[in-house]
UniProtKB/TrEMBL annotation:
<keyword id="KW-0342">GTP-binding</keyword>
<comment type="function">
    <text>GTPase that associates with the 50S ribosomal subunit and may have a role during protein synthesis or ribosome biogenesis.</text>
</comment>
<keyword id="KW-0547">Nucleotide-binding</keyword>
<dbReference type="InterPro" id="IPR032305">
    <property type="entry name" value="GTP-bd_M"/>
</dbReference>
<dbReference type="Pfam" id="PF01926">
    <property type="entry name" value="MMR_HSR1"/>
</dbReference>
<dbReference type="Pfam" id="PF13167">
    <property type="entry name" value="GTP-bdg_N"/>
</dbReference>
<feature type="binding site">
    <location>
        <begin position="230"/>
        <end position="234"/>
    </location>
    <ligand>
        <name>GTP</name>
    </ligand>
</feature>
<feature type="binding site">
    <location>
        <position position="212"/>
    </location>
    <ligand>
        <name>Mg(2+)</name>
    </ligand>
</feature>
<dbReference type="InterPro" id="IPR025121">
    <property type="entry name" value="GTPase_HflX_N"/>
</dbReference>
<feature type="domain" description="Hflx-type G">
    <location>
        <begin position="199"/>
        <end position="364"/>
    </location>
</feature>
<feature type="compositionally biased region" description="Basic and acidic residues">
    <location>
        <begin position="1"/>
        <end position="10"/>
    </location>
</feature>
<keyword id="KW-0460">Magnesium</keyword>
<feature type="coiled-coil region">
    <location>
        <begin position="158"/>
        <end position="192"/>
    </location>
</feature>
<dbReference type="InterPro" id="IPR016496">
    <property type="entry name" value="GTPase_HflX"/>
</dbReference>
<comment type="subunit">
    <text>Monomer. Associates with the 50S ribosomal subunit.</text>
</comment>
<dbReference type="InterPro" id="IPR042108">
    <property type="entry name" value="GTPase_HflX_N_sf"/>
</dbReference>
<dbReference type="GO" id="GO:0005525">
    <property type="term" value="F:GTP binding"/>
</dbReference>
Amino acid sequence: MFERSRKGEHALLIQPHAGGPPDEGASEEFTDLARSAGATIAALLTARIDRPSPSTLIGSGKLEEVKAAADATGADLVLVNFPLSPGQERNLEKFLERRVLDRTGLILDIFAQRARSHEGKLQVELAQLRHMATRLVRGWTHLERQRGGSIGLRGPGETQLETDRRLLQKRVEQLQKRLEKVEVQRTQMRRARVRSELPRVALVGYTNAGKSTLFNALTGAEAYAADKLFATLDPTVRRVDLSGGSVVLADTVGFVRDLPHELVAAFRSTLSEAREADLLLHVIDAADPIREERIAQVDEVLQEIGAGEIPQLLVFNKIDRIEGAQPRHDQPNEGRERIWLSARDGTGLDLLQRALAQRLGMRRVSGRVDLPAASARLRARLHALGAVQAEVHDESGWHLDLDLALADAQRLAAQAGGHPLEVLLPAPEDEF
């Protein structure tokens, strides 16, 4: 057994692939993931795998090549763009004499660096412990099995393993209980937003498409945004005022191809912002040469989390990276609407805001309404909405000049039995 190094920032990457040429997009994404984790890339090797080896995934010949490349480059970490079984990971570490991390472990490491909120940290730790639970056997000298009967050489063996497993399971149960409490609080906050009847819009998309930059541009917030994968993990929710009313906008974690299932499960509360939205803004890097493939991959993840049927508006961001590109709004006869903009420069944001108002039915109505003295509660609600432009009071009641979203006027009119707000509502034939 070897002593697992605590270092591991000089990485050798292995990109397995089936028959045919390697997928350059997958290799590029894996390289970006490694760099996002803070690794320096020593080399990238491809490994054709027609029949995966149960013990090491890759064949003995390729294994020798990887060992030679690691020795030559001085790599102290081997990253494999494939989900390894615990046995495969241990066998690779034993042969290569270096730490080995698969795709899931790499993404978990990035998540651990990026999580900022209490909930996010709990989710990351839970996912890490579940991933670690099957990897407690061998590879760590302090967990070495009992050796022969020589005095002074008897290790703690299985007793230590069982202790570690019990402590790990206890910690998992504690995290689950904490996350359940956090989920209750998040659900209560979400119900409050639902009661306010503000439309809910969620930003989704491939990681590094510019979601957080767009979120900041629309809300004036200061959510962290950077040119790297998984720059933000924790959901951020803000109210956005549009010309026809307000919406609740949520920024969510970015997706990647083959997002590990345990990560989807761990981040269920984060992803629920997308699952429970009225409209999804699917943000795409317009300058990405494989953007259509990215769109398909995000759609696949949305189906997996139960958000595949929610209406989408495609937002092609980063047009400032395309020479001659101009902001525009495409409304095809078939397929999804497309907005082309640059969140960084702010060009095209007006097109997106108008499209949002149109898609969410945010027409406005205005006029004078006469409220009797008995309608004090309705008057208070109109003031709370900021709908009152001017007000006069006399012995008959209040005379209000109003300007508010049609949806708000319809809701308040329904609650008040129509009168006196019915004077603001358009005739049925004028609604469309």
